[in-house]
């Protein structure tokens, strides 16, 4: 019983709980809008990166280009995005939100703002600042360790 309590009080477990609850909340809020779970980040990023290339968007989302291709094809069929050939280099296509996509962006922005307020409600401002600093530091710690592990793997491959 003690071990289960330790797991439930583990910070990684708590982050997992928050992530799951956030996903469930967003899914419930999206309701019948017609976006599947992975598509809102595309809408949000295209608002900032309108006209970006496929590879630029995949990099910003930290997903493989092939995964993005499938997602964009579905979103294009549903009228959320459109791809247009680059005027100077016809080998490149650029991705844009449609009017429907921009309307979805406004809705998603409101939902995101509401959820941010909800998550931080009842927390004093000084605690929010500390929480943010801690999350930034934990992210940096994990990125550094991941980079170290990937570098070690590359070194082992080179030696083999």
From TrEMBL:
The keyword DNA-binding applies. It comes from the Bacteria. Residues 8-140 form the HTH marR-type domain. InterPro entries: HTH_MarR-typ, WH-like_DNA-bd_sf, WH_DNA-bd_sf. GO terms for molecular function: DNA binding; DNA-binding transcription factor activity. The keyword Transcription applies. This is MarR family transcriptional regulator. It comes from Luoshenia tenuis.
